[in-house]
Every structure is written in C-alpha cells, then in structure tokens.
Design brief:
The chain is α+β, with helices and mostly antiparallel strands. The chain has 21 helices and 16 strands. The protein has five domains: 59 residues, SH3 type barrels (Roll), CATH 2.30.30.60; 88 residues, no CATH class; 75 residues; 227 residues, Nucleotidyltransferase, domain 5 (2-Layer Sandwich), CATH 3.30.420; 168 residues, no CATH class. The strands form three sheets. Strands 11-12-13-16-15-14 form a six-stranded antiparallel barrel. Strands 4-3-2-1-5 form a five-stranded antiparallel sheet. Strands 8-7-6-9-10 form a five-stranded mixed sheet, with helices on both faces.
Length: 708
C-alpha cells in the first residue's frame, strides 16, 4: 500500500485481511465496538476495534498479500540497490527537480552553488511553477507531463519516488508467488515440522502438496519446484531451522520476539529461581556395577547469582526433591555432614590438581551464603506444581511465582547457571557425555568412575571454591555498574546495604516439607499402602478423633515417596517417626515399587490377603533375587541404586533436621521426653535459648579449621 493510499484510509469491512498478532486474519463480522477475526490457521478472535487498531504491527493487507510486511528499506540506502550508472542518473534528476522546484540544485539556499539561482528558475523572478517546469522540460528534452509526474512523486515520497522499480536491485522475492502456497508453507512449518523429527526438502515438498490438496481440492493448487519452495522457505522462515536440527528448531520456536530484559532484583532473596535439568555426566554405582544418568536441581538467587542449594538425583527429579531443595536453601550449613572425612580421603582421589588445599577447603566448606527467599520462580513442570511445594511456600511466607509457558527467558538466570555448570564442572569430570548424542564419545560409560555421592562432594567443592568466587559478567549491582564482582562479593555488598534475614535452624522443617495423607490410627497402627506403621506414642490416640476439622478419625501423617520404611506424625507438640512393624532390616533400603512387586508375587502364588510378615518375607526374597548376578538386570540394579540413594538423602536430611538418635525404636522428636525422676517441665527446651548456626561472613578474616 502506498503512502498516499494509507493517508486516504481504508474501510475495515467484511472480508478485509489484516495483519495482527504476527498472523493474517480476515474480518468475518462486527458486533458493536467488537470485530470478529478468523486467522489463516483457523483460530477465531473477538477484539475491540480500538484495541485492534492500537496493537503493535497492525496493518491492513491488500488482497492476496501474505505474512511479509511492506518494504522498509532505509531511504538513505535506496541508491545502494542500483547500479552505479543508474544511481548517478537519479542523483542528477533529483538536482534538476530541486532546481525547478526551489531554485537550487541542493534544495537548500544555504548550500547554493556559484551562480544560483539561475534567472529561469528563480522563484522571485519566475513565480509560477508551470513556467519553471516548461523551461526545465526544454532543458532536459522531456515532456512536461512526464516531468510533472516525477516532481509529484518526489514531493510525496522523496528519493524513493524517483526509483524505477524495473531498474532497482531491491525487489520482493515473493511478488509472483501464489498466496495459497505461502500460507501452506507457514502452516506446514508451524503444525507439521516444528515438533517433528528433521526431514528433507523432498519430504516437505510432498507434505506441502498434500496439505494444499486437502485444503483446496486435488490438483487445484500446484506446488512449484522444490528449488522454488526452498527459496520461499528461506524468505518466509529465516532462522527457523526448518531443515536443521530439531532441538534448534524447537528452541527458536519459543524464543520471544522481543529483546531480553532481566527482571530487576536488587536485594538478596528478592527472586530465587528453581529448575532441574540432566547433568552432562554419567555416574557409576560400584555396588550394582551399573552406570546411570544424573539430574541436578538448582536454586539460584537472581540478585547475587549465588547458588543457594543443589541436589543430584538418580533419574528424574521428583516433587519431594524440589521441596527439600527449598529447605536446604533456608537452612544454615556451616559444614556439610561427612565433609571432613570426604575431603581428607575420598576427594583426594581426583585425577586432577585440586582447586584449593585441604585447610582452605575446610574453610570454604562453610562459605555458603544463606538467603531467605521472598519469591521463588519455577516453570510449569509437574514437580513444581505439587501441593507440598505450595504448602511449604505458604508456611514459610514465600511467594510462589510461575514462569510463562514456552518463555525460557523468564528463567534466564538459572538456565545460564546450568550452562556454566556444564561448561566449568561437567566437562572436567570423568564420565562427561556431552550435551547431545552428536557430541558424545564412543565409550563414555566405560570412562564413568564416580558415584552420585562423590559427584555431589565434587560439585559442592566446585560451588564454594570456584563458582562463588568467579567474576560474573552479568552481575551488576545497582549504583555500581562499573564493578566486576563475584557472587560472594555481591552478597557481601548487598547484605551491608539491605541487611540480613536470620534463618534459624528448625528441625521441624523436614517433616513439614513431606507430602501429607490422612489415615485412621487403628488398634494395630497406621496403615498406608498395605503396610502397618506403629509406635508406643500412638497408645492413647488409637481410634481417636482427628484434630483436623472435617476429617473425622483420619489423622494427618507425612511420608517420603522414596522411603516406605517409616512415616511421621505430629503428636504432643513434637514430630515422631512410625516404623513399619515388620521392617526386615533398616540398613537395606527398598522402594514402594518393590513392595508392589512383592505383593504381586504373593497374589500370583495364590495368597490374596497376605499378612505383614508375608510381605516382609516376599520383599527379602525379592531383594535377594534382584541382587543375584544370574537374575539381576540393569533395570533392577538401577532400582536398587535409587533406593540406596533415597535412603542416603533421607538420612542426610534427617541429620540436618537434628533428629535425636536413640536405641531402637528411634523416637524422632524436637522435645526430648521427660525422665521419670525429673519434673516434666525440666525436659522442656526453649528454642530461643539454643545457639544459632554461625552465619557466613564473606568479609571476615580467614580462619583455620581448628579455630572454630
């Protein structure tokens, strides 16, 4: 549409095609101040006319136009599209028109050439433009009507109006294309190719013809040659990887069509992002003699880029892992349980030079900033939408934010952190497998040598010794844009500016983060999934009324999805653990799936109502057969591996929660039971009198491991 055409206006009538929301739409009806649109791919939209007219990129399309905008060539670059001889002719013509119109070849009296204005073109001497035009037509040997049309176009469109489209190198490569073919190309890429495996141009050409036959009838619209289709695809879908890698095509499809603007976060904990991804490392389990994939879930503070917490899991991350990660982030940890022994022995087996000496590692082991999140941002993965995470955020007073679907830039900081971890850590670990199959070595599984526990220890050292101390190029503290800082330095500066939120250790946080179910306290105990759990603490509460309104006799219990051996219940102001009454051996972990498999074997053997002892015996027999070399498979070994890793993580979490260890059966309680020879009030512990964990101070002078 020309500029004059737009200035005269066009009617938004029935059948008019418009460009809206990066797609072609046709006006199919009006209703008061609303307009009803039908897109090229079949979507219906009703919108206010005022909102439609104000939408970014909205414009009216001429009949048969496609999704390409009109030419937006910079007027100053128009001459670059012409041959040198034609460009000189155009500049000369422009000078003649300016002289005829204004008396000066440059069009500006302040830039007059010697002798200007000439008497025949001086507006003061020849006031009528028609007389000056007649004189110029004689000078150029051109008809007056032709010269008048050129002057009129020059007035309206300046230099652009003088260019003869037949001589310009700048042209529309789709000018002669059938709009129906172009529509089919865009629809086929969006619907058929974007999520499909990468195919060839020949396959795309065939699918394009099938789509046109389905939409318009057989042989009504003929697809041009494959070479022409490839040229159309290059113009219509630039940078969309239609015939490239599938991962790049999907990534480009969700890229926002706007510049990236990071969410502002000026104080520690204002925004904390949590996400999970596979780690580019294969781990090795020496007990089961099996390799397995590793997933890592991270929590990163946006303001300081600090890695607050991390967890590695066998297989996919579960909802309980995300909840426990949040618990890790708010729990001060001067020293990871077991680090002294690990640092002194196991970690020294690394076949590379250590980043720091042993004494310094023990010093840095406590150097994990503890930040209480104000808001956590997660995506729409199923593990992030659990009731347990919502309940944990509500209990801790943390806002739970959800990133927009198909907008990876909403969590750009944690996505970038994953890239840094894979580049600076994973690539230097035995068992690195690359980011995809195209970059994977031939014998990666044979090179894997580190267990999941060892990888966690290595990664913890990497975080405190390398990541937290490396300068982060994207870390800019408000008020200090020229400073280049590490996460530790940014944390120190921001704490001095905004203060520190005390994160006191609370042992009850562990149980409150576990999923909840409601069960009746029966005379024999609490039953969950065919297993009976009991403890003497239930003595006066069997068949009792639940304190939760509306639940009748069903009491709330907490359980860990990876640990069928115990459940937790809150009674008499403290948390208590209820063990399975027929637990074979607490040192041998097992999973819920193994319990289901044991019951299935009993049913197949004709035992429809197995007792707790029958289930325990079948479980032990199943474990023995799974351990036997002649019957063990990679799947069973990985299942046992996950059970062992779950048991290790649970033991670590309970150690962090400071559960009190007693003789069997262990009673896990915050408040110790009162001794018979002492008054009951002497056993009550005032949590306010307990000594808090040491808060890490990055500005404090270095101390040795024995100076604490």
């Amino acid at each position: 549409m020309s500029a004059s055409g737009e200035a005269s206006g066009r009617r938004l009538a029935m059948g008019t095609w418009v460009w809206f929301d990066d797609e072609r739409h046709q006006v199919v009806g009006h209703s008061g101040s609303d307009v009803h649109l039908h897109s090229a791919d079949g979507q219906w939209t009703a919108i206010y006319i005022s909102h439609l007219m104000a939408a970014p990129g909205f414009r009216l399309l001429s009949e048969g136009s496609v999704e390409l905008p009109s030419s937006n060539v910079d007027p100053g670059a128009l001459l670059d599209g012409l041959a040198e001889g034609k460009a000189a002719i155009l500049r000369d013509l422009e000078a003649h028109l300016n002289e005829m119109w204004k008396g000066y070849r440059s069009g500006d009296p302040d830039q007059a050439e010697p002798g200007e204005p000439l008497p025949s073109y001086d507006p003061a001497l020849v006031p009528r433009l028609s007389d000056r035009l007649a004189a110029k037509a004689v000078e150029l040997g051109m008809g007056e009507r032709t010269l008048w049309r050129k002057l009129q176009r020059y007035r309206e469109e300046k230099r652009k109006g003088l260019i003869d489209g037949r001589g310009a190198e700048v042209h529309d490569p789709l000018a002669r294309a059938d709009p129906r073919v172009l529509d089919a190309i865009l629809a086929q890429h969006r619907v058929g190719e974007r999520e499909d495996s990468t195919g060839s141009l020949n396959r795309f050409h065939r699918r394009l013809q099938d789509r046109l036959d389905h939409e318009h009838g057989p042989e009504v619209v003929k697809v041009p040659s494959a070479k022409t289709v490839a040229r159309y695809v290059e113009v219509l879908l630039p940078g969309q990887y239609t015939f490239g890698r599938a991962t790049a095509r999907r990534s480009e499809a969700v890229r926002p069509q706007r510049s990236y603007r990071p969410d502002p976060a000026v104080r520690p904990g204002q925004v904390v992002m949590i996400d999970a991804t596979p780690l580019d490392v294969i781990a090795y389990d020496p007990i089961g003699d099996v390799t397995h994939a590793v997933h890592v879930v991270l929590a990163i503070d946006v303001a300081t880029r600090t890695l607050l917490a991390w967890r590695m899991t066998v297989g996919d991350t579960r909802a309980v892992d995300v909840v426990m990660l949040l618990n890790d982030a708010i729990t001060p940890e001067p020293m990871r349980p077991g680090w002294q022994k690990a640092l002194a022995f196991r970690m020294l087996r690394l076949p590379v030079t250590r980043q720091v000496e042993l004494d310094e590692r023990l010093e840095l082991a406590a150097a994990r900033p503890v930040i209480w999140p104000e808001e956590i941002l997660v995506d729409h993965a199923k593990v992030n939408l659990s009731d347990a995470l919502r309940e944990a955020c509500l209990d801790l007073g943390i806002n739970l934010g959800l990133a927009r679907k198909a907008n990876p830039t909403d969590k750009a900081n944690v996505e970038r952190a994953f890239g840094i971890v894979n580049a600076d850590f994973a690539k230097h670990v035995a068992g690195y497998k690359g980011s995809d199959t195209s970059s994977r070595g031939r014998l990666v599984e044979h090179a894997a040598r580190w267990s999941l526990e060892e990888l966690e220890e290595f990664f913890a050292e990497y975080v405190v010794a390398v990541y937290q101390r490396r300068v982060h190029s994207g870390l800019i503290v408000p008020g200090f844009p020229e400073l280049e800082m590490s996460p530790n330095q940014a944390y120190s500066l921001m704490v001095a500016r905004y203060g520190y939120i005390v994160c006191p250790p609370s042992s009850h946080h562990y149980c409150k983060r576990l999923p909840i179910e409601y069960r009746v306290i029966r005379p024999e105990g609490v039953q969950r999934d065919y297993l009976i759990y009991d403890d003497p603490i239930l003595g006066n509460y069997r068949r009792g009324i639940s304190p939760v309104p509306g639940k009748g006799r069903k009491w709330p219990i907490r359980y860990h999805p990876g640990d069928p051996s115990r459940v937790f219940i809150f009674l008499e102001g403290a948390w208590h653990v209820l063990f399975w009454t027929h637990l074979p051996d607490p040192a041998i972990p097992f999973t819920w799936r193994m319990v289901e498999q044991a019951r299935k074997l009993l049913h197949e053997g004709g035992l429809r109502e197995p007792s707790q002892q029958d289930i325990a015996d079948a479980l032990v027999d199943l474990q023995r057969r799974m351990d036997a070399p002649e019957s063990a498979t990679a799947r069973t070994r990985r299942e046992l591996l996950r059970a062992r890793e779950d048991a290790r993580a649970i033991k670590r979490d309970q150690a962090r929660a400071q559960f009190r260890k007693e003789e069997s059966p262990p009673a896990l309680a915050l408040v110790p039971p009162a001794a018979e020879e002492e008054p009951a009030e002497a056993a009550v512990v005032d949590l306010a009198d307990l000594e808090e964990f040491e808060i890490w101070d990055p500005g404090a002078p270095p101390r040795g491991p024995d100076s604490a």
